[in-house]
Amino acid sequence: MLKVQGSIASLLLAAKKVNKLVYVGNVGTGFSAKLARDLRRLLDTMRVDKPSMPIKGKGLVFVRPTLIAEVNFSAWTHDGNLRHPHREVYRLA
Q1: From the Swiss-Prot or TrEMBL record, what is one GO molecular function term (predicted)?
Q2: Which of 13, 42, 78, 89 is the most buried (most CB within 10 A)?
Q3: Which domains does the chain have, with CATH numbers?
């Protein structure tokens, strides 16, 4: 999933827990202008009408969950989200 404001503002992240996807936060750092354009083009081809998990928000665009984001983060929060995530690598599943 991605948050869109003309281009990528951030990617919404999910993790598998007991064979289902759950929202774990978003990452919006580490995008060069070229990477943001390339990701946008790729993700535009993966758009779907409904999210793969329960999530609400304005300006969200949903995609098939086929991109794997390897991110570094400082800790898990008490509610199961990533604290201070930043992008490392993206690859197709």
Answers
A1: DNA ligase (ATP) activity
A2: 13
A3: 2-92 (2.40.50.140)
pLDDT at 37 over 50: yes
- List the structure tokens of 47: 């758009």
DSSP state of 81: P
* Nearest of 9, 18, 1, 8 to residue 55 by alpha carbon: 1
CA–CA separation, 62 vs 75, rounded Å? 26
Which residues are within 8 A (CB) of 2 and not within 5 positions of it... i.e. 6 or more apart?
Answer: 8, 9, 10, 11, 12, 39, 40, 43, 60, 61, 63
The backbone torsions φ and ψ at residue 26, rounded to the nearest 5 degrees and listed phi first, read: -140, 155
Which token pair is 53?
Answer: 């998990």
- Spatial distance between the Cα atoms of 10 and 51, rounded to a whole number of angstroms: 16
In the chain, the amino acid numbered 69 is A
